[in-house]
Every structure is written in structure tokens, then in C-alpha cells.
């Protein structure tokens, strides 16, 4: 994909790229420099539905207190 830099330093991301990255007006993107000197464009904001099913947790429902305690245990905190 190709885009042109304007005199104001702006580019328009092609629609196919915006769609693939789930980007909408107002979303932020991050340009990350790679070891080879190239850059990767990463969305800084994602729709929360993108995360659906990524944990695959099938255990019992836990209270917020139980979750906080588990986080504290695994983070090395003593609550």
C-alpha cells in the first residue's frame, strides 16, 4: 500500500489498512522503529471486542476481591 505525504506532514492511511487495523477517526497510532531501521505502525486504541475470547478462561466466576488477591500474589505484592 502507498500513501502520499502532504505539505503539512500528513498522510491518509488507505481504507484497506484502516479496516484491517480496526482504525476509526480519532484513533491514535504508534510508529515503532524496528531493528532494521524500518517502522511498524500499531494502533494505540482497539475496540474492546477485539479482546473477546483471548483468555479462554473456563474456571469458576471469581469476585473482584479474589481477582485482586491473585494479581497481588503473582505480582509479588503482599496485601
Describe the structure.
The chain is an alpha+beta fold and 79 residues long. It has one domain (15-74). It is built from two helices and two strands. It has a two-stranded antiparallel sheet. The radius of gyration is 20 Å and the shape is elongated. The chain starts with 14 loop residues before the first helix and ends in a 5-residue tail after the last helix. The mean pLDDT is 85.
The tally of helices reads 2
Number of domains: 1
Tell me what portion of residues adopts beta-strand conformation: 5-15%
Rg estimate, integer Å: 20 Å
Oligomer: single chain
Helix content: 10-25%
How many β-strand runs? 2
- Show unreliable segments: none
Structural category: alpha+beta
| Cα distance spanning the termini | 51 Å
Shape: elongated
Largest sheet: 2 strands, antiparallel
How would you describe this structure in keywords?
single chain; 79 residues; alpha+beta; two-stranded antiparallel ribbon; 2 strands; 22% helix
Question: What's the SSE blueprint?
Answer:
Layout lengths: L14 H6 L8 E5 L5 E5 L20 H11 L5
Antiparallel strand pairs: 1-2
Give a short overview:
With 79 residues, this protein is an alpha+beta fold. Helix content is 22%, strand content 13%. The chain has helices at 15-20, 64-74, and strands at 29-33, 39-43.
Amino acid at each position: 500500500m502507498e500513501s502520499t505525504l502532504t505539505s503539512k506532514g500528513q498522510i491518509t492511511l488507505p481504507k484497506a489498512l484502516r479496516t484491517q487495523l480496526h482504525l476509526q477517526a480519532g484513533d491514535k497510532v504508534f510508529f515503532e522503529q524496528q531493528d532494521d531501521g524500518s517502522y511498524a505502525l500499531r494502533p494505540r486504541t482497539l475496540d474492546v471486542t477485539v479482546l473477546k475470547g483471548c483468555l479462554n478462561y473456563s474456571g469458576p466466576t471469581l469476585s473482584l476481591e479474589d481477582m485482586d488477591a491473585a494479581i497481588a500474589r503473582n505480582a509479588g505484592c503482599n496485601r
